[in-house]
Design brief:
Layout (H helix, E strand, L loop, with lengths): L2 H21 L8 H19 L1 H15 L9 H35 L4 H36 L1
Helix pairs in contact: 2-3, 2-4, 2-5, 3-4, 3-5, 4-5
Length: 151
């Protein structure tokens, strides 16, 4: 295991959690619509593009490689597959975040006459971008970077 990578990843997550708890509770950052829009849509698009077994294998290998349990430099085919899925994951999660943001803004503009409905719609718009950035920053980008080093 690469303890430096694990420590850096946990420190990054810890800083995000600290920032969240510094101003509010974590429940403010959980929205069911946003959870469905970004990770689920991204996962479905990955499966539609690459196939379920390729995505499962690439995510497993990418996570194992990130944490030092698998040396992707020894297996270039696996490294290319991880890089391919990780790059697609970055694109799909950002696009899903953008579409979710647009959905939230449309809902917000439709309910401008009802001020109580503006907040939940704006939460969908902002949280989809937050979830997309989190997926790219904490999952797909490190996987792609590690696979590129191995290739």
């Amino acid at each position: 295991m690469n303890f430096m990578r694990i420590a850096a990843l946990l420190s990054t997550i810890g800083l995000f959690v600290f920032a969240i708890f510094n101003g509010s509770t974590v429940l403010v950052f959980i929205d069911p619509a946003s959870v469905v829009l970004v990770p689920v849509v991204c996962g479905l698009m990955l499966v539609a593009t690459h196939g379920g077994s390729v995505v499962r294998g690439a995510l497993r290998d990418g996570l194992a490689g990130m944490f030092g349990q698998l040396d992707l430099a020894q297996e270039p085919d696996r490294a290319r597959r991880v890089a391919m899925v990780a790059n697609s994951g970055m694109n799909f999660s950002l696009i899903a975040g953008l579409v979710g943001g647009l959905i939230g803004l449309i809902q917000m503009f439709q309910s401008l006459s009802d001020p109580s409905a503006i907040g939940p719609a704006m939460a969908v718009a902002l949280l989809t971008a937050f979830y997309a950035a989190g997926m790219v920053f904490l999952l797909f980008m490190p996987m792609a970077r590690h696979a590129a080093i191995a290739d």
